[in-house]
Specification:
Elements lengths: L3 E4 L2 E4 L4 E7 L7 E8 L6 E6 L2 E2 L2 E2 L3 E3 L7 E6 L4 E6 L8 E11 L11 E4 L3 E6 L1
Parallel strand pairs: 2-13
Antiparallel strand pairs: 1-3, 3-10, 4-5, 4-11, 5-8, 6-7, 9-10, 11-12, 11-13
């Protein structure tokens, strides 16, 4: 059974930074795209960033970001450690949400997935609160 465990959330002032990490299980981690989503109270879960599976040491299809975080957030992966991370800089109060890590339901997808229904496994979430 695939497990995803997020860490690194917390309280930070506007303009600050946080780094989220997601540890996963499974021997074929590198064959799957990974994504980060977030959800605020009363809102639907929304896409934040995603990273393609890797062909050797190269990302097959690169990375994808929501417009709201482009230029501020960076997603990365470490296949040797079965981990995916989200570096969040220049945080804004509107970034406040529970952040979820997710694993693609398909191996070696040709494009980077960004829809919630494209992801089969989810972590429990980690709270990020940005104060103004």
């Amino acid at each position: 059974q695939v497990q995803l465990v997020e860490s690194g959330g917390g309280l930070v002032q506007a303009g600050g930074s946080l780094r989220l990490s997601c540890a996963t299980s499974g021997r074929t981690f590198g064959d799957y795209a990974m994504g980060w989503f977030r959800q605020s109270p009363g809102k639907e879960r929304e896409f934040v960033a995603a990273i393609s599976w890797t062909l050797g040491s190269t990302l097959y299809a690169g990375t994808l970001y929501a417009d709201s975080v482009k230029g501020r957030f960076t997603i990365s992966r470490d296949n040797a450690k079965n981990m995916v991370s989200l570096q969040m800089n220049s945080l804004k109060p509107e970034d406040t949400a529970v952040y979820y890590c997710a694993k693609d339901q398909l191996a070696r997808r040709r494009v980077v997935p960004f829809r919630t229904q494209e992801y089969a496994y989810w972590g429990q979430g980690t709270q990020v609160t940005v104060s103004s």
